[in-house]
Amino acid sequence: MLGKLIKYDLRDILKNVVVLYVIGLLLSISIKICDRLFFNSSFRESFPTLTTVFTATLFTAFFFIIAAINLYTLFRCVRRFYRNVLCQEGYLTNTIPIKKVFIIISNLIASTIVLMLSLMVCFLLILFLQYHDYTVFDSLKNIANGFNKEIGMSIYNFIGIMFITSILSTLSSMSIIYLAFSLGQLSNHNRVLFSILYGILIYIVIQFILLLILLSFSSHLDTLFASWEALSDQVASTRIIYFMCIVSSIINAIITIVCTALTSRILERKLNLE
Amino acid sequence: MAIIETENLCKQYGKTQALHFVNLKINEGKIVGLLGPNGSGKTTLIKIINNILQPTSGSILIDGIEPGIKSKEIISYLPDCNFLNEEMKISSIINYFKDFFKNFDLNKCYYLLSQMNVRTDVKLKTLSKGNKERVQLALILSRDAKIYVLDEPIAGVDPINRDFILKLIIENYNPDSTLLISTHLIQDIESILDEVIFINEGSIILHEDAEKLRSEKNMSINDIFKEELQCLVNL
Fold it and tell me: What's the pLDDT score for residue A134?
C-alpha cells in the first residue's frame, strides 16, 4: 500500500516539475548553440551591445529557471500534502483503509525524492552549461584530489555522507511543514496563514531546544574538540566533518520522527476537513 | 444485527453542539434516509461513521467494531463535495480506486460510466459538474461494500436528473448491504426508503419504518417531517 501511495504522490508532484526540467534543458541547449554560432570573437566584436544584452538575457532566464525548479518543486510538495490530505481530496485520502502515518510517510518520501531530483537536475544543467571541452572535468578532478589531500577523506565518501545528511535534512524540513499545516487546519478560517505562523513557531521552538541541548553539552564538546587538537589537520578535519554530519543526521531523524508522530496523531484525532 | 450502532454520541464544535446524545441502531440490508434540514447534524454524523471526525463523547460501532481501517474497508462513502483530484484522468482515478479498495469492481465502473456516456480518457476537470458527480457516484457504487453512505447525493442535481441518479443508486448498490442516504430533499427520495431517521439540531427526533409511518399517519414522509419540525418549534 505504501508503495502505491508513493507512486500516486510522485506522479502528482512531478507533473509540472518535469516541464520545468525540460525548459531548463532547452534553455541551456539554446545558450550552448548561441555560444557556438553567434558569440565567436568576430561576431562579438561586430555587435558588442547585442551579444552582451542577449547573453545577459539568456543567463538571467537560465538562473530564473534554476531557482524556479527548486521553489516550484517545494510548492508542489507542500500543495500535494495540503490538498490531498487536508482539503476536499482528503475525503478520499482519509477514507482509504490505511494508517494515517503511511499517508504522511508516503508524502515525505515522495517530496524528498523530487526535491533531491530537482537539486541534481539543476547541478547537471549547470555542469552542462559549463561543459566546453574536458576542462571542467579536469577542474573537478583537481578539486577531488585537493580535497583528498587537504581534508584527508575521499571526495566520494564526502559526497555520500553529505547526500545522507541532505536527505535527512529534507525529511525533517518537510515533516515540520506537514506538522505546521496539520495544526493550521484546526482553524476554520485562514488555514494557510495559520499554518505559516505555526511553521515559524515550530522552527523557533526547535532552535530553542537545540540551543539548550548545545549549552548543556558545551563542556563535553570543548573536551572533545580539545582532544582533536593534538591530531594532524587531516584527521581532525575528517573527524569534524563526520561528527557534524552524524549529529545533524541524528537531530534531523529525531525531528522527523517526532513531527511525523504528532502529525499522524492530529490527523487521527483532530482532522478538520473543509 | 445492527451494522451501525451509536450510544450517547455527542459532537461539539466550540460552543456549538452538532450532535446531542445520538442513539441509533441501523440494521443490515435496509435503505435508510437520514433526513433533516441544513445544519441539522447529518454530515457530522456521517463523518463520524467514516472515521473522518472523532466524537466528543459516546461510542459508535460499525459492524461491531470501532471506526478505523477495518470499517473503512466495508464502507463506500460519497461526500457532499468533489473529493477527486481534478488533474487526474478518469481512467487514473479508476485505477486509484482499484489500487486501494479490494472490493472495487473495475469492470462495473467502466460499465456504469459507459451507461452514463462519460468518457474515461479525459481529465476530470474537463467534465461538467453533473458528469463529475456521476463519476463519483459510479466509483462509489462499484465497490462491493457492506455499507454505502451517500451524503446529499442529489443536492446539486437538477430535478430532471434526480430520478436518474436515484435509479442508478437503487439498481447498482449491493442489495444485501445497508444504504444510508442523507438529504434535505425528502420528497425526492422518500419512495425508495425502508427506514427514516429525522434529525434536527443534532438530535434524533424520529427513527421509524417508512411504510409503517406512512400508513399510521396517512401522510407522506415529507409532510410527517414538516409536522414533526412544527411540533418542535411550538414546544
Answer: 62
Contacts of A99 in chain B (CB under 8 A): 69
Full-model pTM = 0.88
Residues on chain A bordering chain B, Cβ-to-Cβ distance under 8 angstroms? 1, 4, 8, 12, 15, 83-84, 88-92, 94-99, 268-271, 273-274
> What is the CA A221 to chain-centroid distance, rounded?
29
The string of DSSP codes covering B52-85 is SS--SEEEEEETTB-SSHHHHHHEEEE-SS--S-
Residue A95 and residue B82: Cβ atoms within 8 Å? no
* A89·B101 Cβ contact <8 A: no
Torsional class of A6: left (φ above 0), alpha (ψ -120 to 50), beta (otherwise)? alpha
- Chain A to chain B Cβ contacts (< 8 Å): 55
Q: What is the pLDDT of residue B85?
A: 92
What chain B holds in terms of domains, given with CATH numbers, is: 2-234 (3.40.50.300)
**Closest chain A residue by Cα to residue B68:** A97
**CA-wise closest residue to A16 among A62, A79, A89:** A79
Decide if A96 and B81 are in contact by the 8 Å CB cutoff. no
Q: In whole angstroms, what is the distance from residue B141 CA to residue A91 CA?
A: 16
Q: Which residues of B touch A189 (CB under 8 A)?
A: none
Question: Mean pLDDT, to the nearest integer, of A96-108?
Answer: 95
Band of residue B21 on the pLDDT scale cut at 50, 70, 90: very high
Give the residue numbers in B contacting A (CB under 8 Å), as ranges.
47, 50-54, 69-70, 72-73, 75, 77, 79, 81-85, 87, 96, 99-101
Share of chain B above pLDDT 70, in %: 98
Measured at the CA of B204, the angle between CA B186 and CA B172, to 5 degrees, comes to 45
CB B45 within 8 A of CB B34: yes
Question: What mean pLDDT comes out for the span B197-226?
Answer: 87
The alpha carbon of residue B30 and the mean position of all alpha carbons in its chain are separated, in whole angstroms, by 13
Starting at the earlier edge strand, list the strands of the sheet with B57-62: B16-27, B2-13, B57-62
Measured between alpha carbons, how far is B109 from B142 in angstroms, rounded to an integer?
Answer: 5
Please name every residue paired with B163 in a beta bridge, in sequence order, or none if there are none: none
The answer to whether B13 and A186 have CB atoms below 8 angstroms apart is no
